[in-house]
Amino acid sequence: QVRFVESGGGLVEPGGSLKLSCETSGFDFSDFDMKWYRQAPGKEREWVARIIPLGTYIRYADSVQGRFTISRDNWKSTLYLQMNDLKPEDTAMYYCNWYTPNNNWGQGTQVTVAS
């Protein structure tokens, strides 16, 4: 069964940093194009960052470009998101999933940016 287990969220002040992790199982992680997504209260889920299997092509949403860094460890089947210079508008539940999302979403990890 496909599983995504996100962790690393928390409460941080504006300008702070967090690193999220997503441990995966149930599929060959090294074959899959992966994304981080987020959903803020009352808003649609949106994609944040994308990385292809070899990590040689990466894309970011305009809102996080230059502040977030996506990476992956294919040996550990784990996806990462380093988030720097966090802003209140980054507050959301963060999820990882395939480029074309699998229906088995994880529980997510909450990121709250506030003074």
Poorly predicted tracts of residues: none
Largest sheet entry: 6 strands, mixed
Output the radius of gyration.
Answer: 13 Å
Q: What is the typical, i.e. mean, pLDDT?
A: 97
Number of helices: 0
For this entry, what is the oligomeric state of its chains? single chain
Helical amount among residues, as a percent range?
under 10%
Using the alpha-carbon principal axes, give the shape. Answer: globular
Order of helices and strands: EEEEEEEEEE
What is the strand content?
over 45%
According to DSSP, the number of beta strands is: 10
Strand order of the largest sheet: 2-10-9-4-5-6
Which structural class do you get from the secondary structure elements? mainly beta
What is the CA-CA span between the terminal residues?
40 Å
Give the topology.
Layout: E1 3-7, E2 10-12, E3 18-25, E4 34-39, E5 46-51, E6 58-60, E7 68-73, E8 78-83, E9 92-98, E10 109-113
Parallel strand pairs: 2-10
Antiparallel strand pairs: 1-3, 3-8, 4-5, 4-9, 5-6, 7-8, 9-10
Give a structural overview.
With 115 residues, this protein is mainly β. The protein contains no helices and ten strands. It has strands at 3-7, 10-12, 18-25, 34-39, 46-51, 58-60, 68-73, 78-83, 92-98, 109-113. It has a six-stranded mixed β-sheet, with no helix packed on it. A four-stranded antiparallel β-sheet has the order 1-3-8-7, with no helix packed on it. The radius of gyration is 13 Å and the shape is globular.
